Structure formats: structure tokens, C-alpha cells
Amino acid sequence: MRIGVFVCHCGSNIGGTVDVPGVAQVARAYPDVVFSSDTMYACSEPGQAAIVDAIREHALDGVVVASCTPRMHEPTFRRTVERAGLNRYMFEMANIREHVSWIGKDREANSNKAAELVRMAVEKLRLNAPLYPKSFDVTKRVLVIGGGVAGIQAALDCADGGIEVVLVERESTIGGKMAKLDKTFPTVDCSSCILGPKMVDVSQHPNIRLYAHAEVEKIGGYVGNFKVDVRRKATYVDWELCTGCGLCMEKCPSKKSPDAFNEHVGVTTSINIPFPQAIPKKAIIDPTSCRQFVKGKCGVCAKVCPTGAIRYDMEDQVVTEEVGAIITATGYDLFDYTRYAEYGGGRYPDVITSLQYERLLSASGPTGGHVKRPSDGKEPKTVVFIQCVGSRDRSVDRPYCSGFCCMYTAKQAVLTKDHIPDSRSYVFYMDIRANGKMYEEFTRRAMEEYGVQYVRGRVSMIVPQGDKYLVRGVDTLLGEQVEVPADLVVLAVGAESSHGAPQLAEKLRISYDNYGFFMESHCKLRPVETNTAGVYLAGACQGPKDIPSSVGQGSAAAAKVLGLFSRGRLESDPQISQVDVRRCVGCGKCITTCPYGAIEWMELRGEMKARVIETVCQGCGICTVTCPQGAIQLQHFTDNQILAEVNALCLS
Amino acid sequence: MPVLKGKELRVVGFLCNWCSYGGADTAGVGRFSQPTDLRIIRVPCSGRVDPMFVVKALLGGADGVLVSGCHPRDCHYSQGNFYARRRLETLKTFLPALGIDPDRFQYTWVSASEGQRWKNVVSTFVEKVHQLGHAPRIEEAAPYLPLAEKGDTLPAPLRPLAWPAAGTLTASLEQLREKIRAALPELDCVIGWQQGFDALHATPLFMRKPEDVDKLTWGPLNVHNLATYLPQFKNRKVGVVVKGCDSRSVIELLQEKLVEPDNVRVFGMACEGVVDVERVRKAMEPAEGAACTDVAPAAVAVEGDGLAFEGDTPVRLKLADVVAEKCRTCDTPVPLLGDVVEGNASAPAGPGPDAPPSLEALDAMTPEQRRGFWRAQMDRCLRCYACRNACPMCVCRDHCIAESRDPHWTTQEGNVREKLQFQVIHALHLAGRCTECGECQRACPVNIPVLALKQWMNRSVLTLFDYRAGVDVNAVPPLLAFAVEEKNIKEHGL
To answer: How many CA atoms lie within 13 A of B281 on its CB side?
Structure first.
């Protein structure tokens, strides 16, 4: 083999604490090294050109670059050697910046360490082999999980881009949290007026297949070729026939079904269309309260339905969809404020969540848009908002900021003044986080134009007093205790991960953090990608987000999917495991341990052997360690390649 | 390349690409100063780190080895670090058996964002290694051979050893023969024992015709574990006669699907212990230097708690004095599966408090003595691989990595390091699979107590995973599985 070594100064980043020319000189004596030089910036255009020239001039068939971390420039240099006609895997990198020059000042030790790292890279490179990616077909359809605003945006952008979309929504209507909002900050425009048309677009788009009241049950396959089982939960109404006329709701005698859409402010009928703009606008029966199900007799809806759509004997149905990519947009849940005993732990009827208040403000809500106290229906004159309920609080394991509560609280305080001009609003806050376009201005307006009283401090206790609630807290700016007698207390509850998020993550094989939010591939540079190829994130499933960010991510994820599908075929990473069938004894241990199901049995001359499904293998190497004969080897990280590095350090 | 004298020690790191390597990068970007000793090898996942890499480094002169991966639940490959945790913890508990300080090996979890944590991990670990100083090399240890020569007095067995009276024994054997004769037409062959080249040695018997069954013998000389032959009979119908301990090997082979349940017929006999032929020979040796043919008895008879050797000079030995080591702590005298002839074997005693004698001896040594011990033993090792060939669980057969070039785990050099490396490979490959049948040790022509390494490993596996091999056909061996929360594995606090 003819190896070339290029040791980079990286200006003074490496050269400052490493004898770069010295390392290059030592490297010349390493086995198979025929060329070695130092270079000021290996990654620069002249730096790369020098590598290309040297490969040609010295007929090199392998290159080692000693510079920064391979996590930064390995792809760069792989392209460089490829330009010179080498296979991209005939290249190794020694990290002498992040792992050497930046972490120590001892020039002798650094230079010695750098030389050793180069030696290891050379020894590994000597055992490298050219690898070639395989290409495979792509199913150009995308699954979007979650029909909130992020999922809607992603679905519409993908559909407009010309690919088929399967949109799966857990509830019976899409719209998510945004559909429950009355107005949105900072423009105070009507939420359903801006979301409604998008929802209609989803239902009418020829490229979108919507499964509402359905959940993803099983996901198999890999990027380009996922197979997804979707469980369509029984609605007890044939949606093909239901016209959404609402006659059944009018006549339904069972009127005590929990009203989830209205955040349990009041109750609703057992057969129900959640709200007038629901998409799909179809009725669904709640079997836990429906008399037909509970008592076994009623059948009123079946009698009145003009199209005969009621099906009491309906069962769940599982459909299988084949898609090439998946966008998860499963959103968030609200923090359960009843964990705070100081706010009544859920015992006080007039201490409500911000989303419940949103429903009270909404014209389509249970009170028709008139703000009334849940306890007695009276109009509140003094409303107290408490921020950071379940945000920035380690005591309830929610140390993170939910991001949007400051803004919606300001909006709700403004709306309160609009609805009840003679009302007074107080906001207890920790810090006002208004870091969006026009956000700071909006909170200012709330204070200055609408006279909302902002009190910087926490509330220690809410005490019922007559028909009022005494909110006791501290004003840390004044440094004194304050008490506000409130008619209504609104808790700005924070966001937490959607229930079932970790289970979904396991099915998708993506990571999630301690709080159940999905992990993006890189916090800055790959914010909507996950570490599983072909699975993307949009919206608050990745972390709390406001509407603009969620929509932005929806579009970003769609752009990623469209980019992925713009290629007719996909290339698989050749750094995958490979079975030496002569060594394989067919014990199947690798099949047991593979986390991806990427190894299958195959018959070879009457004997069972293991075989790697190239497109499924992700290249972790768990199988290589499992196999006692070493018959299954992870390419580019074979036992011999790693042993060469160990031996370079230990035996020589 | 030598380490910088006086400044550095040789510390090798294996870091997963996604989390810990990134964490080390983050520490670099943050200019967190760290000891310069560490050399990092990048691997895709901590699940790629073969514990044998660690052994290779430590036997090859590394003073410390550090493995770091993504935090549990955060693995880029979702499960790699869960497997790594089990493998590496098992290794950590095993290293002391070789006389290697387990503090020289550490594994931990560092994410890509934890630059500060990485600095702390490296600093703490390297400081610890510096406290320990240069790792002593096993091949340079002073030879240490404390074990009593075989044939000397050993502690009494846990279970009273007494063979049934000759009459009942004959009845049981006849019962067994009947069963085999009845089943033989459906089987290609049944594997049992017959008398070997002299009265002291039994030898495997492959019964194909009914008259072959008459040659079947039963007694304390049936030392071989015949389950070893089964994988070779894959896809053929075969019967095998087993003792209690042998039956666990059959279970293990069934569990690993290396024999099919439909193709194997197991005939069991309750066992009262087998002899250690070497020990018998020692006991009978008339004088120093006499050739072993001199002591070959004309016949051996079982008499209650002893063996009577008929010949020129009749000898009577107590079974307890010449019984194989593994029988002393046996808790499965009755086979766990198959068509069993109970005979009048005593009920199995529970596992006793005592460790097996070799393991006990190893336990009693200091780390330095252990290094000297293995150095001395490996000096004698002929590298004949008899231990491997006799092992019923060494199913790789011709593909053993001890002799391959790809992968090239051991060289053919006849030195202590390479020989010990092979013994470690054997022990690690048997983790969670070894039934302690003792064939490795019995087969060793130079009597190296290699079983002690496996006994050590088995004790680790039992402590860590509450698991014994060869008991349940449907169990998943602990190193092929993981738990998200490991009950018995504590974080090591780096």
C-alpha cells in the first residue's frame, strides 16, 4: 500500500502546541507511508488541491489527514480523495486538534500524542478496503403522525410538492392545540380563522389520505421503505355515510360525556362532533357514556341519522401503509397542575388552566365566548394569571422553560380587557420571555395600553374566601407580600411531552430526552432530522414551541422529505455488517441482538446462515461483538481494523 | 511507541462516535485541559466494543482502558449501550481472576454536549491510573504454583458419595439398555460409554445396532460429556446418554438451537460422581518414575463408597478421594431432561456454600499471585486446544478465532500473553453459557486448572444477572439480552 500523510497546522490552532512538521517527519517512517507533509489548512482549497496532487504524483492509494475531528471534516476529505480517484473509504483521520492541541499545552507530550494518533490511523488504513454504496428504490409517500398545526403544515407542503401523504391523527379531528385557541399572539388574530382554511385544504387535497381517530401501531422497514400499521379506532359511525349534519347531537339523550375538546369545561353529548370546523366533520360515539353501550338500549342516534351511518358493532381496524419517510408531529400535553397543592390541587373550580380559559374566551366554546366563572357563571372582574406552572420548576421535574406561556398570558390578559372592559388583570411572573418578532412590543402593550398589572414573583398560596380566591404571593421588586382577591385564577401551565411519546419513539427507533421530547439529530444544524434515517420531527414533539416555530418546522421537515424523494433511488451506507458465510455456524446470536431486525436467516446448501439486510443495517456493530467466530464483521470497523489500532498503541 | 517516560502512562479509550467522541470534541472546543495520556479509538457504538479489545489492550501493556458511550436510553442505535453495559460489567468482574486490577478498566456514559463531564471523566480516570502506576505484565510475574498436586487431599464433597450396590447398579444399567434398544430403530445412533483401552478408561460408544447396546457401561469412569458430539449430528436423529451435569450441556445446545429438540433423544442416568482419572493414577502409582502402564488394573469394580482395582497389586480407593473436582459441588446429579433412570441416586443437594476448590484457591490468592499463577500455568500450556475441543459449548469448531487471521485476535506466538489471551477468549465466549462440566480441564494434557476461569465467570454471571446456564431451554442468556434498568449493575461514578 502507498499511504500519504497530511498533518495540518490549522493556523496556530494545532501548530501552536504541536510540532506539526516534526509529526509529519516521524510519520514518514510508519509502515506503507510513502509521502508525508505538513499543511497550513488541509481543508482549504489549496490544502485539498495539495492532497489531490500528492495522490496523483505519488500514486497514493490511501490518505491520512491529521487535523480536526472527523465529525467535522471527514466528509470533506472523503470527497477530496474521491476527486483524485480513490475510494472514499481509503481515508482515515487523526484528530489532533480537539483531542490534542486544544486540551493541553505540553508541546512534547502533544507532539508525541499526535504522532501516535497518526500511527493508529495509518495502521487502521492499511486494513481499509474500498466500500461501495448500494442503491435502492424509494416509496415516495410520507407518513405524518399528528394533525396539529405542525403536522398540517408538513402534510400540505409535502402534498403540494407532489407526494402522497398519509396523515394519522389520534383525535377525531385534526387541528391539535391550535384549534382550541381563541386568538393567537402577538397579532391577536382569530386562531380558527387562520387554521380553518388549512384544515379544509387537508381534507380536500387529492394527495392527502387522512386517518383521524387512528394511531400508529407498528413501524417496520427503513428509510425509503417503511411499512406502517395504523389502527383505526372504532368511531361507531360509518364516516363514509356521515354528513356531519349534527342531528344526532341534537337528539342524543346522553348529555354527560366528558368534553375533551373544551378541556372538560362542561360536558357534551355522547355522540359528538368536537367543534363546528372539525375536519373531518364526522360524528363519533363515546362508548363510555353512550346509553346504547352502557345500558344496552337507546338507539336514538341510529333512528334519527338521515343516512343510517350509526354502527354500534364497529370494531377497530388495522390498515397497512407503505411510506418512504415519516414526519412525527405529535405535539405536547399540558402540565398537570393538580400536582401543585398550593394552587388547590384541582379542588377550586375557579382555578383553571390557560387552555380552559382559552375555551371560555372562544366564541365556539362552551360559554359562547362570554367569560363566565365555572363555579357560578358570574363574570369575573378580577382575574389573576400565574405563570410558570410546571415550567422552570425543578421541584416538579420540569426545569425547562415552556417558551410560549409568557406570550399567551399577555394575550389572554389583553382579551380579558376586551371581553370585560371593567375588569382588572394581574400577572404573577418570574421573567418575561418575549423573544420573538413583535413579542416584546406586545407584552408592553398589555401593560401600558391594557393596564395589566405585572407582579414579579411567585404565588405561595391560593385561599378561597367567600366567593373569591385570595391569591397570596410576593412582589420581589417591591420586596413585599401581596394579596389579590381574585374572581378567577388562570394558571399558565407549561408544556410536557405528549402522552405515549416514548412508546412512539421506541417504535420509530428515535431517541427521546428525560422528559419524553424527541431528540433531533443535531441541536443546531439538524433540528428536524433524527438519528434514524427517514424519520423527521416537526413542532412541539421535539420541545415546547409556539405556532410560528411549529409551522416553520413543519415546512422544514417537508423540505427534508421532498429533498430525500427528489432522488429516484437512495444510497445505502456501506459501513454495515457483512457475514462471512464460511465462518458462520448458524447459531443466530446476531439475529437475537440486532436492534433493527437487520439480520435474517438464509439457507445455503442445506445449512442455515445469517444474512444482513443491507438497507436495514445501521452499522452499530453489536452483532460483530456477539458473534463468537467473528463471522459477521462491521465494515470499516472490523475486528482487525480496531485491533490494528490497539496493537499500534500497546504491542509496539 | 513508548509512552513519555515519567510523564505519561498508556491509557486507551474506546469512544462511541455519536455521544462520547462528540463529548471529547466538545471538551476540546471548550479548551478544557486534560491529561495527555489518553489515546482515543473511535467506534460507531459502545455496543461495538468487544470486551476482548479491552483484554487485548491490558495484556498488551496498557495501563488503563476507558470505554465511553451514550447515556442509557440515549444510544444512537437505541440499544447498543445496554448490551455494552452487560458485556463490560461482566468483564470488569472477570479481570481480577487474571490478577488485573479492575480499576484499570472503566466504562461510563458521556453525551456529545457534556464537554465538562468528559474532562472530569478523563482527569479522574487518568489520575486513578497514575495512582496505580505502571501495570505489571503477567508474562513478567514471578511464577507462583500453590495448588496442591492432584491426588493430594481435597476437602470433602458436599454430598456423600457412595455408588449404589452392584446389584441395583446392574438393574439400572439394564433398564437403560432396554430403553435404548427400544428407541434404537428410530435413531441413527445412540452415544454412550464403553470400556476403553484398559479397565481404568471408559471411551465413547456409538450404538447403531442392538448388539452394540450390550457394550454400554455405567459407572464412575464415564467421565466424558457426550453432549459435545451432538452438534456434529445436526439434522440427524441421535440419542445420547447423559449424567446430570451433561444434561445441562444438552439444554444449553437446545437453547442455542445447535441441536433440534425433534432430532435428539436424551437418556439420563442419575449420577453418583465420576472419578478424576489423573487422581486415580496418582493414587495407584507404586513409586516415583514408574510408567503409567504399570498401574493399569485388570478390572475396576465399584464397591459402595470406593473403587476396587484388581490386578497384580489390588488397590481399594475411596471414591471421595479420587472424585472429579466438579462432583464436589454438584447440585444436579439427576439429569434435568430426557428419559431418566433414577436408580437410587440421592436427592440433589442445593448448591453448597463452598466454592469449587480451584476457584477457592484462586480467590485466596493476591492479584500478584494470580498473575504469577497464570504466568506459570500458561508457561506449561502447549496450545493444543484440547480444552476447546472437549468443550460442548465451543460450537465454532473449525472457525475458532484463536486460529484465524481474519479476525486476527491471537498470533501463533507461543508466549504467555497469547496463550492467556486464548483462555480469556474461551472464558468470555462462555459467559452465561458454561455449565461447568469441566471437560476443558479434564482434557488438558498438562492439567492446567482452566475450569477455574469459567467458574469465576459463572459466579459473576450469577451475581450480576441471577442466571445459571443449562437449566432452562427457553431462557435468553444474559449477554444476549439487557434490561433498561439493571438490577445489579451500579454506575461506577466517573
So the answer is: 18
